[in-house]
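Teaching assistant here, posting this on the class forum so everyone can see the example we discussed in section. The complex has two components, and the goal was to see what a joint structure prediction looks like when all of them are supplied at once.
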Amino acid sequence: MSAHTSAWQRTARTPLVSRLPPLSHALAVPFPFALPRGLAPRRAAALPRGLARARKATLSRGLARARGRVLLRVFAARTADTSPAPAKEQRPPPPSHPVKGPRGPRIVKIPTAPLLVALLAVLAATMMVAVSIGAVTIPVADVWQIVWHHLTGSGSAADPALDQIVWNFRTPRVVLAALVGAGLAVSGVVLQAVVANPLADPYVLGVSSGASLGAVMVITMAGGALGGLGVSAAAFAGAMIAVALVFVLGQTRGRVAPTRLVLSGVAVGYLFLAGTSYLQLQATPTELRSVMFWMLGSVAGAKWNQLGLVSTVVIGSTLFLALFGRQLNALLAGDESATALGVDVHRLRAVLLVLSSLLTGTVIAVAGGIGFVGLMIPHLVRLAVGADHRRLLPLAAVVGSIYLVVVDLLSRTVNRPNELPLGILTALFGAPFFLWLLRRNRSLDAG
Amino acid sequence: MKLTVDGLHVVLDHQPILRDVSLEAQQGDIVGLIGPNGSGKSTLLRAVYRSLRPARGVVRVAGDDVWKLPARAAARRTAAVLQDSAGTAVGLCVKEIVALGRTPHHGLLGRDGADDHRAVEEALDACGARTLEDRDFASLSGGERQRVLLARALAQRPKLLVLDELTNHLDIRARFELLDLIRGTGTTTLAVLHDLDLAARLCDHLVVLNEGTVAAAGPVLDVLTTEVLREVFGVQAVAERHADGVIRITYGANPLAIGRATEPLTSAVPRSAPAPATPPAPTTPAPTTPAAPSTVPPAVPHPAPSVAAVASASAAASPSASPPSSAEPPTPPPTEHEAPALG
């Protein structure tokens, strides 16, 4: 290989946008770019100054690499070439402290507001489609008309049967799915930051096992045992008892240590699971079936009258938690560093844990133990937009909504006329995704 | 601005960690905090950056008692670069990491303004990290990370910089680059350093902590005496200003053999040497001193000749020819060094 070629390869190995998913590379680059190698050096001369400098610096160290890899990097370099971003990188570094040219993954930013608006539009569209599909398929236009009529009181009333299906059955269900998805995603984001553990999800503090025990008690003991509490109320109470227990065990002198908290959550979870399992053994097959269904989660029973409370809790706590974006970011730097940044780490933890537990408890009370959403959506969104919580929280909420609306749609269409519990489908998609995530996440290699 | 630590007592789990520690740093001074592992250096820093409340005593930054200020107000005065951030691998880009430095300047509802952007960009420029601004922090090398974390601290626009082992695990060039950056900030700095050579180069003053008390404090050469190096750090070494104006530390051929070495080691290198110290005693990073002086076995069965060889270079200049006094090392004259009871 000639010196030119290897120099070009070195230049091309300067990856500017390697964090972009492969698809966007393909979109951003005209395809017939696999030039004959002899042409390459001329191309290199047209690169921006910053890159040319990097090339010069690495000229002598050039080593031939596998050709496939070279082409991939060429895409990366070209993408940067056509974008306006490099203007800043050409600024010469301060002379006394030379820093090598850019290399390694870069995070590409789309401004938050437009992204949020676009995702909200996607959510609205998904919800319309989800309402229109079912045992009776109703055109989206009709759905829109009915919803519009109910929301504004204007327009003509539709066929009462259709109106009944759309407004009284499907819309509350889809809205609840969206709220539950948002709540779980937000809670997952917050808990992952607060306990500094990428495996944390909304149930890490024993919420789900507590809620399960409450729900199972009501289902198997015919309600009377808990003074006539409904399943939702009992689940909420169970969740709060479990979380309170975890807090008490996980703190020392009012301070919450993340590791102790997580381990306490696991232990309390097992404790409640023992009770749940025992009750399940005593249950009749019918009861057992409804227990299973509850534990795997469903939004099938959604009613308008329960949405008021749920939407208040979910939207309210999401907005409130979003205020803590900056503090959550500081927490990523480590407890001591966050303290030095003026964050009262212990109080922040306590506030966030209480809020996210309330949020999770509310969601699980109305929808059962839907797994994986709260683990996977935060990771997915973090990979896509980075870990700045001021972006991450609202975007994760909307993406979680979209995901759960879609999953709910699938749960009632893939096996018609039967419905599948949501937990089965979220895990069916969630588990392979999560494994893929574990495989590709370089930061996990070290640990 | 001035930093004053006065009569600081810190207790952790009923154990006194710091006892009556006082120190001072004038505006623009770089004060190095040195001492063996477990001597209370990081604890002192924690009391300064308002993480661990002292049982008694005050910490004043620019005149204000930081423990009487609200946390955010204190963090606008004092910025810290600590070791817990170095491993951050969380999908924040460099600019976002540096922007964390603006945290104490905002409440819950605060939004970034022009002033924040300017502070971040100035900090990036000051640390030569502008070219890194879009990079994922997790992808940076160790030296680049510390540079970025220093930029984060500068973005706080602090009056006092607190640095905990900033140069740990870095290659030698990165260390010197960081020293340059720190000196270039012009900010009053309190820095914990393990590498005594770097400490001697960087700092205007040194404070030696040993077992929770100040064992010595003052200008570098006044502090890094052979006695202090022996009693506190447990090594046989000498610090001296070379002809090029740089203070270097020369370790004995067998730096651990202090039980035998009753005479202080002086010059192993001719004072006129223009170049850095040469082979016999390369300026290695300070060894992590394994034990407090009292626990160093007094009679290490090392071959005496090696010690003698080094010591002989010191000619007759040392009057302190005490006999190899069994378990306790000789008490150092200048300081209130306590015979420690436990490690």
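For the discussion questions: Confidence is low (pLDDT under 50) at residues 1-102 of chain A. Chain A touches chain B through 46 residues (CB under 8 Å). Think about how each of these relates to the inputs above.
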